[in-house]
Amino acid sequence: MSQKKPKLGQNFLRDARAAERIVHALGDLSERTVIEIGPGHGAITEMLAARAARVIAIELDRQLAAELRQHFSAERVTVVEQDVLQFDFRAAAEKAGMKLRVAGNLPYYITSPILLHLAASHAALDTAVLMVQREVADRVTAHPGSRDYGVLSVTIQTHGPAESLFTLPPSAFSPPPDVHSTVFRWRLAPRFAELGVQEQPFLRFVRAAFAQKRKTLANNLRAAGIGDPAASTAISEAGIDRQARAEALSIETLAVLWRRLVSGGAIPGRESTAQ
Ligand code: SAM
């Protein structure tokens, strides 16, 4: 067994029931290809291998990848020794001939980059069931008006609904991390067309709207170069209180505001091709 590498976020799951619940939450896998992020010693992989048509396990740690290759039949489990942030989900989905499901007890030091990589790969994915630090799951699944609602909530939820499933204490892992962990399910079904927004310009606008928690929406927009009278007009046309903060606004209202700003010429509605 390899030594734990703290830098790689190696806190291994000791709770077999939790591994089972993660796999169960992915639904019927009998004809599915599942990508596992960070399989470690294989606590979740073992159950995926028993239920899925095919598992692709992406592990950065060379020793762990070798251990997994020895343990699992290559017909069922393909071990890819790679940084998951470099993994091409689209190519894997094309090869599999179907959208992929994703499971993982994530290495917490790169949780946000992994979630953004999955969001950017949404066309290749259908459902992800992921273990993250509890505070991150709270932000991912938060609704408007709650303390945790912000850029991460909007970014994730515009790519499809996310719900928390269960929380585990540090003692469920070896070695125990400093934090509680929560498993959430994310059904990737992007809402950009339905909301009438363009993905990249809209998410850029959302980051500007939430830039400083204490500031009003209007002040955050002004700081991003979206000034009056265009901003005030769009805010009032979208039916938003002048003193509102972005934290109070639903994704639908943010989309209405974005569309008003675009139609008023205050921000570009399409990705500019010029650098
Ligand atoms: N799935 C196992 C479990 O639940 O016991 C291990 C989970 S552990 C929290 C995270 C795993 O991700 C470790 O095995 C670690 O080596 C691996 N890892 C860390 N960084 C990675 C990266 N950039 N790409 C792929 N795997 C990575």
Secondary structural class:
alpha/beta
| CATH architecture field of the largest domain | 3-Layer(aba) Sandwich
- Tell me the name of the CATH homologous superfamily of the largest domain: Vaccinia Virus protein VP39
Assembly state (oligomeric)? single chain
- The SSE string, one letter per element, is EHEHEHEHEHEHHEEEHHHHH
Roughly what fraction of the amino acids lie in strands?
A: 15-25%
Helical content (DSSP H or I, runs of 4+): 25-40%
| C-alpha geometry | elongated
Total strand segments: 9
* Main beta-sheet annotation: 7 strands, mixed
CA(first)-CA(last) distance: 49 Å
List low-pLDDT spans: none
Highest CATH level, the class of the largest domain: Alpha Beta
**CATH fold descriptor of the largest domain:** Rossmann fold
Number of domains: 2
